[in-house]
Design a protein that fits this description.
This protein folds into 2 domains: 3-68, Arc Repressor Mutant, subunit A (Orthogonal Bundle), CATH 1.10.10; 83-135, Dna Ligase, domain 1, CATH 3.30.1490.190. 34% of the residues lie in helices and 15% in strands. It has helices at residues 3-9, 16-27, 33-44, 49-61, 131-135; strands at 31-32, 66-68, 76-78, 86-90, 96-99, 125-128. The strands form 2 sheets. The protein has a 3-stranded antiparallel beta sheet. A 3-stranded mixed beta sheet has the order 5-4-6, with no helix packed on it. Helix 2 crosses helix 3 (33-44) and helix 2 packs across helix 4. The termini are far apart.
Length: 143
């Protein structure tokens, strides 16, 4: 299904700005709002930062885009929705990649005590150093 049909199906009026934002998110998973805005400007010309944030907000609310907020990192957006995957983030450069759920069905993790909540999602962020940043590390000293 194309982006315009997805918007209509979710009751969102179709605009060139929303289409460009959706396409940008789909083409650049885990991009920040600023990176999405730059990409959209290259495609359709002028668009305000606020218009990008507004479009992202609507798309997130309608479940067409997922917002992830790794601690200490800018908010990022992705088009992979409908599953309970997780993320791996490089501590140095911020590269973010998807990690499929490691155990079972949603929510992938079982809380030790649910405190009466009905749990429907678990969010896990793995932290580490990506292969590109590892290349820049000096070799370990040998004794």
């Amino acid at each position: 299904m194309n982006s315009a049909d997805l918007l209509r199906e979710h009751g969102v009026p179709v605009t060139a700005q929303r289409l460009a934002v959706m396409d940008s998110v789909a083409g650049r998973p885990h991009a920040t709002a600023d990176a999405i805005a730059e990409n959209v400007r290259c495609k359709i010309g002028t668009i305000s930062r606020q218009a990008v944030y507004d479009a992202l907000g609507i798309l997130v609310d309608k479940g067409l885009v997922r917002r992830i907020q790794p601690a200490g990192s800018p908010t990022r957006y992705e088009a992979r929705v409908g599953d309970n995957h997780h993320h791996l983030v490089c501590r140095r450069c911020g590269t973010t990649v998807d990690v499929d759920c490691a155990v079972g069905d949603t929510p992938c993790l079982t809380a030790g005590n649910d405190h009466g909540f009905r749990i429907d999602e678990a969010e896990v962020i793995y932290w580490g150093t990506c292969p590109d940043c590892l290349k820049d590390e000096p070799p370990a000293a040998t004794a």
